[in-house]
Design a protein that fits this description.
Blueprint (H helix, E strand, L loop, with lengths): L8 H5 L1 H11 L5 E2 L2 H4 L16 E3 L4 H13 L3 E5 L15 E5 L6 E5 L4 E4 L5 H8 L4 E2 L12 H7 L6 H4 L6 E7 L5 E5 L10 H5 L8 E8 L1 E2 L3 E9 L2 H13 L6 E6 H11 L9 E9 L1 H17 L4 E4 L3 H12 L1 H6 L4 E4 L2 E2 L5 H15 L3 E6 L4 E2 L1 E5 L6 H18 L18 H4 L2 H14 L39
Parallel strand pairs: 2-4, 3-4
Antiparallel strand pairs: 1-2, 5-6, 6-10, 7-11, 8-9, 8-10, 12-14, 12-15, 13-14, 13-18, 16-20, 17-19, 18-20
Helix pairs in contact: 9-11, 9-14, 14-15
């Protein structure tokens, strides 16, 4: 059963006082205290777990964020930052005694600088919103997670989101140039800017993917790219997932880096086709979508190379897009795969793990065996080019024990990822979902070192506690507290 930090009775007793103080900082409708209104924030994309937040605060300015965090720091109140709430790892799961800091009102594109190929946006701008702001000049923002119509740039930074095109153009960390963020004690810090590299420590890299544990982002500078001259896609059907996986390895091994490379298995193919009618070959057991972009001559050459490799790997169907509309139709099913699967099962559990590409056939075979063992179906949809798996475990939460069985199945998949040389996550983050599996990937020294970094930014562990780390350590345990003249720093913190 999921264990979150115990609620602080003293903080709960001061709820009315805390709400009044926050109303002074964020006036109007910026503070939500009514239970029915707080209910909208009780969970994120990991809907199996819910917790009503103590108070919800919706700031509109950096100054308000600064004052809220400063107040919470001075009064020992936990804070959970939240974007659009699309996290699939429980990264924005609220706390009973915590303030949920919703950043949805930070939704403005502040500047578009085409000369320097960047855009300055607030963290509440949607991922797709960045591309829409620059598309009229022939530019786009490369990271494109499946939830891009709803997920926000701030959340993308928290989880280091990827998407279909991350194989060639990188994850969020490869496309963020600068940040403004606020620390828990109310200090506003700016990192990077309209340039590629900054001197000194890579704090920008540390913040990207930190899951709200280190600070709250209030402004982002992202890189925008010129839209390619040509983009075409191949729709390739295979008799098995193993042969599709081998084709992926062979394409990359040939030195070809597609713009996107995705695999769907038989269950996902059928669900997506029934949902969007993209023309997928439902008789195939695996579908590989390969997008190639660049100069037209280069694209034509690479398409032929990929076709030849696919034929060697026993491809049964090969279709090549002949128009932009057809290319978009190829991708429509993949982009809608998650809601499509939701139509054929009462519930599904979306996993996220990454493996070396050459292990794809082996891992897919093992997952099929696990599926039979647990008696639960799996629909596989994943970023094949970089080995980022997204198995969808189908279950019915109304059947006693099935949720627990699905979670156990998912844990075994993630352990398998680590065993073959991969990692626990690719782009969904650790959150609460994978928190207790961190020990399978990191030893105690590794985890303590990570927590020392956390302590440097947040010594009282007030920012998003209960996430990422399986065992929460106080800074004193890690040798970070010094005693002078018998006066203990942070005397209010319980000692072990």
């Amino acid at each position: 059963m999921l264990k979150m930090p115990d609620a602080d009775a003293d903080v709960l007793a001061r709820r009315a006082e805390i709400a009044a103080a926050l109303c002074d900082i964020v006036p109007g409708e910026g503070v939500i205290t009514e239970e029915t209104e707080r209910r909208a924030y009780e969970t994120d994309g990991l809907t199996a777990y819910k917790q009503l937040p103590m108070i919800v605060v919706l700031p509109e300015t950096t100054e308000q964020v600064r004052l809220v965090l400063k107040y919470c720091h001075e009064n020992g109140i936990r804070v959970v930052p939240r974007g659009a709430g699309t996290s699939l790892s429980g990264g924005a799961l609220p706390l009973e005694d915590g303030v949920l800091l919703g950043m949805g009102k930070f939704n403005q594109v502040l500047e578009v600088d085409f000369a320097n190929r960047c855009a300055v946006v607030q963290p509440g701008v949607t991922n797709l919103g960045v591309t829409q702001a620059v598309a009229h000049k022939g530019f786009y923002y490369a990271p494109d997670p499946s939830s891009q119509i709803a997920c926000t740039i701030g959340g993308n930074i928290a989880e280091n989101s990827g998407g279909v095109h991350c194989l060639k153009y990188g994850l969020t960390t490869n496309n963020v140039l600068g940040l403004e963020f606020v620390t828990i004690d109310g200090e506003v810090i700016r990192l990077g800017g309209k340039h590629l590299d900054s001197e000194g420590y890579d704090i920008l890299g540390v913040l990207t993917g930190s899951e709200g544990l280190l600070g709250v982002v209030t402004e982002v500078t992202v890189r925008i790219l010129r839209a390619p001259e040509t983009a075409r896609a191949l729709l390739i059907g295979f008799p098995s997932s193993e042969s599709a996986g081998q084709c992926v390895s062979d394409v990359i091994g040939a030195g070809i880096i597609p713009g996107g490379m995705e695999i769907m298995d038989g269950a996902a193919i059928q669900a997506a086709e029934d949902f969007v009618h993209a023309g997928y070959p439902v008789e195939c057991q695996a579908l590989l979508i390969v997008e190639l972009d660049g100069p037209e001559t280069e694209v034509d050459y690479l398409i032929e190379r990929v076709r030849q490799i696919a034929e060697v790997n026993a491809a049964t169907t090969i279709r090549i897009s002949e128009s932009e509309a057809e290319r978009e139709r190829f991708w429509a099913g993949r982009k809608a795969a998650f809601p499509a699967v939701g139509r054929v099962s009462p519930d599904y559990y979306c996993m996220d793990g990454t493996i070396p590409r050459h292990q794809l056939p082996h891992v897919l075979k093992c997952m099929n065996e696990m599926s039979e063992h647990y008696g639960l179906r799996v629909a596989n949809v994943f970023h094949a080019g970089d080995g980022n798996l997204h198995p969808l475990i189908l279950y019915d939460a109304n059947n006693p024990g099935e949720l627990e069985k699905a979670e156990e199945f998912g844990g075994e998949i993630l352990k398998l990822c680590v065993e073959v040389g991969g990692v626990l996550t690719g782009e969904h983050g650790v959150g609460v979902e994978k928190r207790d599996l961190m020990g399978t990937m990191f030893n105690d020294d590794d985890l303590k070192q990570q927590q020392r970094l956390k302590c440097a930014f947040d010594p009282n562990s007030l920012l998003n506690p209960g996430k990422v780390f399986p065992t929460l350590h106080r800074c004193a345990e890690l040798g970070r507290v010094h005693i002078h003249g018998g006066q203990t720093r942070f005397p209010d913190i319980p000692r072990f």
